[in-house]
Design goal:
Order of helices and strands: EHEEHEHHH
Strand order of the largest sheet: 1-4-2-3
Number of helices: 5
Protein name: HPr family phosphocarrier protein
Strand content: 15-25%
Organism: Escherichia coli
Pfam families: PTS-HPr
Structural class: alpha+beta
């Protein structure tokens, strides 16, 4: 087993976007890769975005990736470079409202004077679902 030790460099912690990117990096290897947040004593399969988010990892938390398997040497080399150089880029600065609204609507839609909610893209593709505007900080009120 090989280990990569690091401090979480993400100012906003390990949330959806960086968790998805880390999962993508880890999923290309046959080796078993475990993410550990030492502050929380939480372990997760590094090939699962939801498991990574569940570790509650915050900025500067002591973390490690344990890599075990037939391609562990190559995986460690590539993942260590990713963590040291590119991982922080997955936690980009959130755009301002002015930047979000800089994309005008087509005239046919703007005539309807809609209430708009802007979001940020996590990954390319098409999303389908029902938009729900939360009115409370507590998810208990939606059970």
């Amino acid at each position: 087993m090989l280990t990569i030790q690091f401090l979480c460099p993400l100012p906003n912690g390990l949330h959806a976007r960086p968790a998805w990117e880390l999962k993508e990096q880890c999923s290309q290897w046959q080796s078993e890769i475990t993410f550990i947040n030492h502050r929380q004593n939480a372990k997760a399969d590094a090939k699962s975005s939801l498991a990574l988010i569940g570790t509650g990892t915050l900025f500067n938390d002591s973390c490690s990736l344990n890599i075990s398997g037939s391609d562990e040497e190559q995986a460690r080399r590539v993942l260590e470079e990713y963590i040291q150089v590119r991982f922080i880029d997955s936690d980009s600065v959130q755009p301002t409202l002015a930047e979000l609204t800089a994309h005008p609507l087509p005239r046919s839609l703007s005539r309807l004077n809609p209430d708009l909610l802007y979001g940020n893209v996590l990954a390319s593709g098409v999303g389908v679902g029902t938009l729900t505007l939360l009115q409370s900080d507590s998810l208990d009120s939606y059970r």
